[in-house]
Amino acid sequence: MFKLALRTLRLRKGGFLATFVAVFFGALIVSACGGLMETGIRSETPVQRLAAAPIVVGGQQALALPEEDPATRDPDEKQKFEHATLPERVRLDAALADRLRAVPGVTDVVGEVSFPAQVGAASAFGHAWDSAVLTPYALSGQPPKPGEVVVDAGLGIGIGATVPVAAHGVIGEYRVSGVAEAPQAMRDSALFFAASDASRLSGHPGKFDTIGVFGGDVAAVTAAVGDAGVVATGVERGVFEFPEVGKSGEDLVVLAAVSGGLSAMVMVFVVAGTLTLSTQQRQRELALLRAIGTTPRQLRRMVLGEALVVGLLAVGAAVALGPVLGNWLFGQLAANHVVPDVLRFEQGWLPATVAAGASLLAVVAASFVAGRRASRVRPTEALAEAAVERRWLTPIRLVTAILCFAGGTALGIVTVAVMTGPVAASTAGPAVMLWAFGVAAISPGVTKVTAMLLRWPVQAITGVNGRIALRNTRVGAVRTAGAVTPIMLAVGIATANIYLQTTQEAVSNQAFTEDLRADAVVAGLGGLDPSVLARVSAVPGVAGASEYVTSTVFIEKPFDSGQADDGWPALGVSELSGTAVVVPDTLDRRVGDTLSLRLGDGTPVDVRVTAVEHQRPGFERLVLPAGLLAPHTTLGLAPQLLVRAAEGVDTATLTARLREATAGSPVSVGDRDTLIAAHAKGNEIGAWVNYLLVGMIIAYTVISVVNTLVMATARRRREFGLQRLSGFTRGQVLRMAGIEGGLIAAIAVLLGTVVAAGAIVPFCLVVTGSLLPSGPLAVYLVVLALAVVLSLGAILVPAWAATRGRAVDATSIGE
Fold first, then answer.
1. Are 717 and 802 in contact (CB under 8 A)?
2. Which of 511, 604, 592 is nearest to 554 (CA)?
3. Nearest CA to 231 among 59, 91, 64, 87?
């Protein structure tokens, strides 16, 4: 039967190409997403500043949190922990360097500090000159003394010049004592200071960001470090140099998993629909094979053989090109700051294997579905079965639909009853997929019912052509459903994901602005010097000013079951002092209670609840003193001040006075709109990722729609010929085909809208209290227009080609 399968493929190039395209693009996207996932798991970052140190010691950025309350846990059971990633850099005590020097075999130990700095208009990172050997840099000139600096060769500053350097909230004049040149390309320019200046400007005296160790045994160094840090060698050293890579890698894994899994599920339906349609167009051929004695098993083997031949070719091409697409997608993510540009794209054999296996599994499953129906007819019914499609609802379709609808309903109930705020999207997203797949499983029946509902308006507008198009749609419901399903998937997924994102953005912006009383903002490079607060507060027309610090903290005691590994968003303000904390009422704490926290860099601290307030659901946070929170952030200082104008002082006057008061300091002054725009920009990264995901799915479904409709319409050449011989003009046939395309688009849009509503409505009820999402109507209109254009174009173009010749010639062409 496999030989017969190979021979039939040569005579059915249209079906061969359609199946090839469906499998190829599905496997291509899955393979590319697999590469992104492997990149996130590996998180390999080329070492730059620390390249010369064979062993690097860094801070422990992981925090172990108990999964259950230790007070109520069964003492006979082992305590389970989940590991959270600390958001701020964890630094090392300088005393650790002295211990490492005593390790046998260690020849040198070098501590490294790194802090943002700016020389003129150029951004750079400051370091102590002693740490230049970690790269190593080649020096022209002299090492820096206090008050001097060695500049990166790429900055183009000559020896002997005096330059202003802004760092740690202040500007100082430094004489250039030398020029340093790196042995390789570096992402960031470097400024090297004397050790005393670097310690002061880093804001963390007596601390090192990392420690480079030369010589010695890795095991001995690890034993000497103990719990004080983490030891890395090889490519793992890059994570200490670029700590943002760790969190970005986790996010990339989640993104790739969601995108790849979603693409794989869509591929199953698209490939199944394409193969089913291809097989249905051969019903007469298959029926004749049954009539001459071919067994059902042989027929299934033939269909499977054809599908596997096409699938292997498509998967082979997709696996070869998967890294190309994956690398391009990774480049787009890096260009839009979703992942650090220092992260290196890696794709080995495993993603290709997984993509190939998933794609071939989809092909096998689809061929089983496609061959099962034709193989089960009795030989005596074969020819009649080839003429009319009678059955489409199988037990597998019915069970799949019931399970998907039940799952979608359950997720909707959970969204409304349990979830709060933007976190509700975690259940709303999967819900739209379940609703979509449930509708796809019974799409022939749903398509027929929807077509009946549209009968009166279609007939009233289109007349005879519309009546014939409606009959074609109802009689060929299975064929029509093959075109409706991918458009429905595209409309439902695109509409739901885009409006979920726009609603989240609107709610986030509203939550940020509804309690915002600031009229201006003062932001500093590398943080604000504490003296700026006093200067700003003394400006005429300022009613109040507060430092504004954001971070993440973790509650250790009492046990917080709702914290997970994300921790609590924390806000630092100047109105609080000491160890006071304001908590949301959802935390179920009372004034006077004590909380044991871990700050963003892992520092433990006990705080006392001084107030409990109601906060917007989904946006709860702990409010702490800025003086407590800021020193435990990576910058070590508050990044900005929020300023409120006194009554009768306009924003323009306020900002002008603030610029005058902060002249000479490395700060920028903006109005309220600047602050809101900066917050909105922070949401753009998440939006861009979501739109990329939607774009990939839409692109794939667009290809499958065109693929399916072109194949289905091209095979109707004989039908069109018979209509023309019975009195139809070519224009009437094309109008009928156009009406069918419009019907397909209308049915798909209606079903896709229902699918999207199944996820959007529960989500909006939770986050906004409304049934309708936030976002421009133009988004939905564009999706609708795209569906119509695709349907009409993919039907009219092949119909125009199929009706070009003489009608009598078309009727002589086989099935």
1. yes
2. 604
3. 59
The answer to whether 730 and 803 are in contact (CB under 8 A) is yes
Q: Which of 168-172, 615-619, 677-681 has the lowest mean pLDDT?
A: 677-681
Q: Could you tell me the two tokens for 569?
A: 């968003």
Q: Is the pLDDT at 390 greater than 60, yes or no?
A: no
For residues 548 and 572, what is the distance between their CA atoms, to the nearest angstrom? 6
Q: Give the Å distances, CA to CA, from 178 to 222, 492, 731, 740.
A: 36, 62, 82, 76
- Residue 287 pLDDT > 50, yes or no? yes
Peptide bond into 584 cis (omega under 30): no
Supply angle C-alpha 270, 498, 784, rounded to 5: 65
C-beta separation of 605 from 634 below 8 A: no
Helix (H, G, I), strand (E, B) or coil at 771: coil
List, as one string, the DSSP characters of 57-72. EE---EEEEESS-TTT
The string of pLDDT tens digits covering residues 639-654 is 999 999 998 888 899 9
The pLDDT, as a whole number, for residue 147 is: 93
pLDDT of residue 379: 61
- Residue 227 exposed, middle or buried by CB count within 10 Å (0-12, 13-18, 19+): exposed
Q: How far apart are CA 238 and CA 245, in angstroms?
A: 9
Break the chain into its structural domains and give their ranges: 1-45+242-388, 55-231, 413-512+683-815, 526-665
Structure confidence at residue 333 as a pLDDT band (50, 70, 90): confident
Q: What is the structure's pLDDT at 739?
A: 87
**Alpha-carbon distance 758 to 745, whole Å?**
20
Q: Give the sign of the dihedral formed by CA 722, CA 724, CA 730, CA 735.
A: negative
CA of residue 793 relative to chain centroid, distance: 32
Q: Which of 133, 132, 250 is nearest to 191 (CA)?
A: 132
What does residue 610 show for φ and ψ, rounded to 5 degrees? -105, -15
Tracing tokens 């508050």 back to the chain, one arrives at: 638
Q: Is 324 exposed, middle or buried (0-12, 13-18, 19+ CB in 10 A)?
A: middle
Q: Which residues contact 683 (CB under 8 A, 6 or more apart)?
A: 504, 505, 508, 509
Q: Nearest Cα to 32, choosing from 371, 318, 288?
A: 318
3 state SS of 322: helix
Which amino acid, residue 544?
Answer: G
- Tokens 């470090």 belong to 225
436 pLDDT more than 70: yes
The secondary structure of residue 164, as a DSSP letter, is: E
CA distances from 483 to 134, 717, 742 (A): 61, 18, 12
pTM beyond 0.85, yes or no? no
Q: Which amino acid is it at 596?
A: S
Percent residues over pLDDT 70 in the chain:
91
